[in-house]
Amino acid sequence: MPDHYSLIAFTDREGLHAAIPLNNKVNREIYLTFDDGIEAGTEEVIDLLNRKGVRGTFFLIGKRIESAYKRDKEMCLRVLKKIYENHAIGNHSYSHTNEHYSAYYNKGGVKIGGTDTNPIRRSVKDDFAKAKDTILFYLAIANGKNNPPTSFSEKYPAAKNQTKGLIRFPGTNTWYIKDKNIYTIKCINRDRAWYNLNPWSCTEDTKEEALELGKHYNIFGWDCEWKMNAPHAVDLIRKKINEKEQTKTIDYLNIDDIDPYINLSDKKYIHYDRPEQSMENIKEELLDLVYKSPYNPFDNVAKTPEKVVLLMHEREFRKGILKGNTVDLNDTTHLDKLGKLIDYFKRIKAKFNTLDKY
After folding, report:
1. What are the DSSP calls for 3-37, one per residue?
2. How many CB atoms lie within 10 A of CB 225?
3. Which residue from 79, 196, 255, 288 has the fewest beta carbons nearer than 10 Å?
4. How far apart are alpha carbons 315 and 312 in whole angstroms?
């Protein structure tokens, strides 16, 4: 065997041990990406990445930043400053669809008023534009500007050393735009019953928006996701929004109505949205994506050879675990899983990069 090869041991899906050759000349690149901030766990994740000396890409939600600023101004600005100084910023929309994904893409955007029969909607394009201005507004405050404008001439929000605008659609992974060229990522059908009958059926309900937003942004989905287990906080948020909409008491200008706060440090919710897969499972999935195994021709490969985009959410890794009848908010059990994943790929000389360098 050539001396530039070594072996990676792994356990396949039948539980059998095997080994695949690892070519040390392969340019292995891992892109750690995080959606939905600012949220519980964002600062813990940032501090971990900084300790490990790796950079991540944070896809921020406009209304989530406003909500964080309302609850804890100092924390919000501190987190934004840390992202700005060391990482990359992506636009993840202002509303995150208010958790109505199909209507967002198929009916002209997020509902912001009107009636059930004659709704007023903010278009997908305008929702991202509102997010851009929101992110830039609070970034300006975080960087010491006392009275920033509420709208900006910049085409996209960016961190200090960021070279490109980055966008990720909420709840969908259908299109990928790099340097103005559009590529299909995968088939998605929002009608689950029909999808089960015909998994190869594709929706194109975001293509028009992707082409428009792609004029200023590189649009990224993901290759794999470190999924969260149930129960999910988003289900509680959706329920609260739906209740207000159904009783016609929702105020779309009230941040508490469109982004109801769930205290994920509370004993009732401390087990919500934790990593579903083990660190070992995610490690092997990433290896499958980076390396096409000669032993399993059905392994996935990443959208771009040797580059893997991993989707995560900061709240998965927030501190805290239930011990007996009380919550230990200093416990880092779940954060340590992310740390061990980073350590492993650093050991095999993988590179960690932000998506503007993709």
Report:
1. TTEEEEEEE-TTS-EEEEEEETTS--EEEEEEEEE
2. 19
3. 196
4. 9
Place of tokens 């600012």: 38
pLDDT tens string 166-210: 999 998 887 767 677 777 665 444 444 434 444 444 566 788 888
* Percent of the chain whose pLDDT exceeds 70: 82
What is the distance between the alpha carbons of residues 358 and 337, in angstroms, rounded to a whole number? 25
- DSSP secondary structure code for residue 229 in this structure: P
DSSP state of 251: -
Nearest to 154, CA basis, from 122, 170, 177, 131: 131
Distance CA 358, CA 356 (A): 6
pTM above 0.85, yes or no: yes
How is residue 327 annotated by DSSP?
Answer: E
Other Cβ atoms within 10 Å of 49 Cβ, number: 23
* 71: its two tokens: 């609850």
Sign of CA dihedral 99, 104, 109, 113: negative
Q: For 275-309, write each residue's pLDDT tens digit.
A: 999 999 999 999 888 765 444 444 455 677 788 99
Amino acid identity of 215?
K
How many alpha carbons fall within 13 Å on the CB side of residue 6? 8
Burial of 68 (0-12, 13-18, 19+ CB in 10 A): buried
Bridge partners (DSSP) listed for residue 91: 60, 167
* Confidence (pLDDT) at 19: 43
Whether 160 and 87 have beta carbons less than 8 Å apart is answered as no
Answer whether residue 225 shows pLDDT above 80.
yes
Burial class (CB in 10 A: 0-12, 13-18, 19+), 296: middle
**Structure tokens belonging to residue 136:** 């830039």
What pLDDT is stored for residue 192 in this prediction? 44
pLDDT of residue 292: 53
- The residue among 69, 47, 64, 66 whose CA lies nearest residue 56 is 47
> Above 50 in pLDDT, residue 246?
yes
